[in-house]
Amino acid sequence: MKLRDGIAVTSTEFGGVLLDQRAGTYWQLNEAGTVVVTAIAEGHGPRTAVERLVAAFDVDQARAEADVADLTRQLVEAKMATP
Q1: Which end of the chain, N or C, is surrounded by fewer C-beta atoms within 10 Å?
Q2: pLDDT tens for each residue of the chain, 83 residues long
Q3: pTM for the complete prediction?
Q4: Which residues pair with 28 in a beta bridge?
Q5: What is the CA radius of gyration of the chain?
Q6: Residue ranges of the domains in the chain?
Q7: Running DSSP on this structure, what letter comes out for residue 58?
Q8: Cα(77)–Cα(23) distance, integer angstroms
């Protein structure tokens, strides 16, 4: 998975923001979403995102996998990322 060109990730006090610089639209992300999107932006796959979620939050492996799968699906559907 890869973020599309023109997509920027910025951390904020409350999580992060994913900005589509071409369209001028954005997604506000909670802290967990920011962890996932940052991993993807760094070129890592879903496995690394899951590992980071499990390490950073009180969440089990299965829940982290489901959350990563859901967020990555939404990013692809919104055309902010490619599979």
Answers
A1: C
A2: 999 999 999 999 999 999 999 999 999 999 999 999 999 999 999 999 999 999 999 999 999 999 999 999 999 999 999 98
A3: 0.91
A4: 17
A5: 12
A6: 2-82
A7: S
A8: 15
Give me the residue label for tokens 């996932």: 36
Query: Given this model, what pLDDT does residue 48 score?
Result: 98
* pLDDT for the residue 65: 98
Tokens representing 3 are 């973020």
Helix 61-77 with 46-56: angle, nearest 10 deg: 130
Q: Which residues contact 76 (CB under 8 A, 6 or more apart)?
A: 1, 82, 83
Which residue's structure tokens are 């910025």?
Answer: 10
What residues contact residue 24 under an 8 Å CB cut-off, 6+ apart?
none
Instruction: Tally helices (H) and strands (E) across the chain.
Output: 3, 5
